[in-house]
Amino acid sequence: MTPLQKRRHSTMRQGKRRATQRIILPSLISCTNCHQPIRSHRVCPYCGFYSGRKVKT
Ligand SMILES: [Zn+2]
Predict the structure, then answer these.
(1) How many angstroms does the Cα of residue 26 sit away from the middle of ligand 1?
(2) CA of 23 to the centre of ligand 1 (A)
(3) Tell me, what's the pLDDT at 1?
(4) What's the gap in Å between 57 CA and the centre of ligand 1?
(5) What is the per-residue pLDDT across 29-52, written as a single tens digit (0 to 9) for each?
(6) For residue 53, what pLDDT is reported?
(7) pLDDT, tens digit, for every residue of 19-28?
(8) CB within 8 A of 55, min separation 6: which ones?
(9) d(CA 38, ligand 1 centre) in Å
(10) Most CB within 10 Å of its CB: which of 14, 26, 33, 55?
(11) What is the DSSP letter of 8?
(12) In the chain, where are the structural domains located?
């Protein structure tokens, strides 16, 4: 059975749900090598550096 709601949710309830979903935003940090805004805990897509050394070619 497909889960179907019995009644339509109010806009307040919809907004409350969406408010909790949009808290998680990508935390941007600047690269230590090229100073570009990149995602934290990710290899820099511009120069391929991670934690002070070249990871990607
Ligand atoms: Zn970089």
Answers:
(1) 17
(2) 26
(3) 78
(4) 12
(5) 999 999 999 998 899 999 998 988
(6) 84
(7) 888 777 778 9
(8) 43, 48, 49
(9) 8
(10) 33
(11) P
(12) 11-54
Distance 24 CA to ligand 1 centre (A): 24
Residue 9 DSSP label: P
Task: Please give the single-letter amino acid code of residue 28.
Answer: L
pLDDT of residue 37: 94
Centre a 10 Å sphere on the Cβ of residue 38 and count the other Cβ atoms it contains.
21
Integer Rg of the chain from CA: 20
Cα–Cα distance for residue pair 25/48, rounded to 1 Å: 23
Helices (H), the chain: 11-21
Alpha-carbon span 51 to 33, nearest angstrom = 9
Task: Spell out which residues have Cβ within 5 A of ligand 1, the ion.
Answer: 31, 33-34, 44, 46-47, 49
